[in-house]
Amino acid sequence: QVQLVESGGGLVQPGGSLRLSCAASGIRFSMNVMYWYRQVPGNQRELVASITSAGTANYADSIKGRFTISRDNVKNTGYLEMNTLKPEDTAVYYCRVGLFWGQGTQVTVSS
């Protein structure tokens, strides 16, 4: 059974940082592209970043230069380091590996 478990979300002030994790099990994590998406209620899910098995990363323009995606293929875990957070980054963040999704973790940026 495939499981993707996100963690690391929370409430942070504008300008702050958070690090999200996505722990994978039941899937050959190292052979799959990993994605981070985010979704605000009433809006479509937005692709934030992706990283190939070899470590090639791509980013949405809205977060480029502030967020960093990474992965540890030994630990079967992916990460999203988020810096200089803005209120508009508030959303539920989801990881995706292959065709499988995690349950999401809430990130709230507010003073």
Describe the structure.
- This protein is mainly β.
- Helix content is 0%, strand content 51%.
- It is built from no helices and 11 strands.
- Strands 2, 4, 5, 6, 9, 10 and 11 form a 7-stranded mixed sheet that branches.
- The N and C termini lie far apart (40 Å).
- The relative contact order is 0.32.
Rg, Å, rounded: 13 Å
Q: Indicate the overall shape.
A: globular
Would you tell me the overall average pLDDT?
A: 97
Q: How many strands? A: 11
Distance between the termini: 40 Å
Number of separate helices: 0
Task: Pick out the low-confidence regions.
Answer: none
Provide key terms for this protein.
111 residues, mainly beta, 7-stranded mixed sheet, 4-stranded antiparallel sheet, 0% helix, globular
Short description:
The protein has 111 residues and is mostly beta strands. It has no helices and 11 strands.
Secondary-structure blueprint:
Layout: E1 3-7, E2 10-12, E3 18-25, E4 34-39, E5 46-51, E6 57-59, E7 67-72, E8 77-82, E9 91-97, E10 100-101, E11 105-109
Parallel strand pairs: 2-11
Antiparallel strand pairs: 1-3, 3-8, 4-5, 4-9, 5-6, 7-8, 9-10, 9-11
